[in-house]
Amino acid sequence: MIHATTILTVRHQDRVVMASDGQVTLGDAIVKHGARKIRRLYNDRVLAGFAGSAADSFALFSRFESKLEQYRGNLERSAVELAKDWRTDRALRRLEALLLVADARVTFLLSGTGDLIEPDDGMVGIGSGGHYAVSAARALARHTQIDARRIAEIAMGIAAEICIYTNANLTIEELAVESRIPPLNPARGGPEPVEGPNPEPRIPDPGAA
Description:
Elements: E1 6-12, E2 15-20, E3 24-26, E4 29-32, E5 38-41, E6 46-52, H1 54-70, H2 75-88, E7 97-102, E8 107-111, E9 116-117, E10 123-127, H3 130-143, H4 148-162, E11 171-176
Antiparallel strand pairs: 1-2, 1-10, 2-11, 3-4, 5-6, 6-7, 7-8, 8-9
């Protein structure tokens, strides 16, 4: 298990949120309370968070960012290519880290063993407190009406109360979720779709020419 951090991604309702704690641990001592373990990449359209060695994680960030540029922001393709390189490249194989990446459509977990995992429910955590945070986030999403950001805040707070490698000094980033539901085609004489966040249907006037 990779210690010294907790990163959580919550995809819920119309938002995707990535949260991290700020604690850095060296052996049995806390050496930093406010580290940033999340970055926005590719014109702020992609969120990425790491767990593991800081130097290794920065090397992965740089490699992943170059993949995003190469594939014009296509997260799926970039993640697949990074996972392939990570597993086969002799230098990359030595890196000890886990990476969470997300955009408006999809979330992936990447590891140096070639793992490339998309969570079923859009919720995934890494680091020593990751399982605690994900468990809390899933319970909150299923049994409350609070939004994704608040779910992440509460879940990370719970993880910080349990995991000695996690603190409550949070960094949170979020993106609007891109709907995967195609627009409906109106039936003849039915209401026409209207663009906007909460569209109201326009009913055709039967007496109109």
